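Notes on consecutive records. When two proteins share a document, each keeps its own sequence and its own token line. Never mix them. Below: protein one.
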Amino acid sequence: MLDGGVAIVHSGAMASTAYSREGGSPLDPFVAWVDAYGHVMFARLAEELWAQVPELQTVGSTGIGELRSSIVSHLPGLRAALLGSGAPARLPEPARAFAASMAGQEVPLSAILRAYELGHAAIWNGFTEYLRKKEPAVTRRAEALEAGSIRMFDYMQAMTGRTIAEYNRVRDQVLRDVNSQRSQMVRAALAGATDGRELGELLGYAVDSTHIGYVAWCEGPDRGPELAEAARRALAGAAAQHIAVNADGTTVHGWFSPVDRAVYADLATVQLPRGIGLALGTPRDGIRGFRHTHEEAVLSALISAPPLPQPVRFPDVAVAVLTSQHSELCDRFVDDQLGPLLHHDDRQRLMSTLHEYFATLGSPRRCARRLGVHPNTVSQRLQRIEAVLGRVVDPADLRLRVALELTRWRAVTAVSSGRVGSGPVPRDAN
């Protein structure tokens, strides 16, 4: 690639020398063609591109005028580049305005780049056709084509790059504005300042339906850009409608209406990308449900660290969420109920037995089956547990059941108040 580039430049220099001996530049025919036919051809080119790139037509009839002005505005810059001054530092103002307009109206960037590509080809084809008619000498024609292709490619490459930069600048600003507006509406609905109707009127999200609130988060800012899309993909099959706002660079708050309530059970088994967490509130109805399910999702996310492979649902962690509201009191409660067992040398085996025994409603046989041991082994372990705790182990004992649930979540989660933003109300994205 490098050798080829050097060869082209060297050939261009030789061509320039050849023309110099004859009193001209190899680019003189190109400049003459631009002067004679450029304005007419560039204006006509707008009609052709408008027809060939249908995405441009989505902006309405005014778009073709903007496109025409954009194309024609490149004439002085292209002529100057052919004469050796290089590409201008900035886009011509009509071209910049066109790129900004397309970004603001959500025309895909690919459509604009396609227009540049087709325009480049059309201009080059027009010049080569002109050259064949006006320059009979094959050598001089080849020199003009070679030198012209280099200058024109450099100009088009520079203008394409600046168009992309302008498009992305405006598009980023539009997205920030949209997210800020969406965040303000959501904040007002959560605070009870509105009934949420504007979410439907302006954003297409109906509040008079069933809602499941969620919080999606990632462990580092490098994953932030993919977070919203990862959450959307995880919920795509379950959502009849969906809305989301950025809480900060590593957190997204969202809501969706399930296609039916049965999908809520299926969401517990969804596989999430590594390093991305998802917490779900309970399905709830109306504007009150919109607020309540969000609060549940935020609280569920607060106790889930690091992110788990599957979504965390509020009903599954409700006990842990409730007790986490006073963590010191919770710690004392667990220690009061299970302290001696938690500090026992054989605590891992005894605690797993106790968990399964309670999960099977006090059935030594079913507990043994789940542990892969003999029922007598379960009975012996239960006797040891009772001796350690100094109390009878009864699956109906609410205090023991709550303490066990808390220890289960301690094994896989940790309280991390800085993980999901500042609270249940999303902040504006910067």
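Protein two starts on the next line and is unrelated to protein one.
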Amino acid sequence: MPFFYLTIIAVVLSVIYAIIDMFSIDRVLKLVRETKAFVFIENEVHFGKLHIPPRSGGGFEVVYTEEGIENPQTMIAFLIENYHETRNKKFWEKAVYLTDYFKKKGILPKDFDINKVKISAWNPPSLVSRKIYSSEVGKIWMIISFIDLLSEKEKKARWKRLSSIYSPSILKKLYRKVQNSLGYVKDKITASLTAQSATLLKVAPTDLQKTLQDAQTKIATSFITTTYDALLENSIGRLVTVKFKDIDGEEKFYQGVLGEYSDKYIYILDVDYRLQLEAKIKGDQIINIYPTVKFYGFRPKIPETLKIERKDGKFTIINISSKPVRIEKLISSGKEINIFKVLWPQEKIQLTDEFQEEATLQFEISLESDVVWPRSKATIIGLGDYPPSLLKRVLEDFELIEKVKKIT
């Protein structure tokens, strides 16, 4: 009889999990799905639209924009090869359509002739996306969208999303309370089932033990399990301070508005993210500026930021942008000069010119961004401003202290 009840429990748990799992998407990733973003993973950056299927366990796919497709000629060659092998016209029609489209977008040269495509096993493979598996979440540094790169339509959608975070409607508040309540109830049910079945599991057959344990584990990590964190819940829509260990290993602090959190991620909006860049200098000319990590899918155009002057034995760096820039290091012929100074617009710094004709300048610019950080990489260490309830208490305490000072 005990085994019969255990079997029923296992079946019920499995059915509940199957229903929930069909619709489960991480609630942070749900807010950024089908948006364009840069995904920093290991030493690479992938840009594209985020496709997040249900049951992905925190994983997702970055679908490159057309500008970021790698080796489109190989894709066309594959379609033509399939057409020749199968005589299925859909392959030819797709090849013709994509060729015309890529030509219009400037991805393929205007003189590209589909009838002269060479099919070779030595051609580099085409690539239109990067799959980020749930097992790779720990390798992600951040998922970031730079506001300046958004279209007007995307900016309007963002402001609408921000408005709902700052001032959520009554229905949204109610939905969130229900969602958090379901998570709490789920935790209690899981704990109760675990406690009640623990004794029986000791004498149950091995197969049944595994079935029940798997079902309990899946329920414990399913969609309605979105962790309720009281210290983060009361900070939704508030300015928070985040500690983050960046790709270069440097520990940095950022501020922004907490938009959402989940078991795996935190979503911080209006962050002034500091992007690390290197400038190659030849004489008094900056010949190239590029990020310190490799970009796939699309590399953002870096605005004109710095100007170099070399005269009278002085090496001068001038900030010609409208925003502050942090100059970090100047490297030439193995010699490294640490600077670490913030230059405001039109501000300059002068060094004694002891450098060779060619040099490398490392610096940072700040870009307004919305950032998804894995909770394994970033921690919200506190609020950046007073919420109304706390501010009232602080002001009341301040007034009381002032009154005490007057009578003592």
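For the record: Residues 305 and 321 are 5 Å apart (CA to CA).
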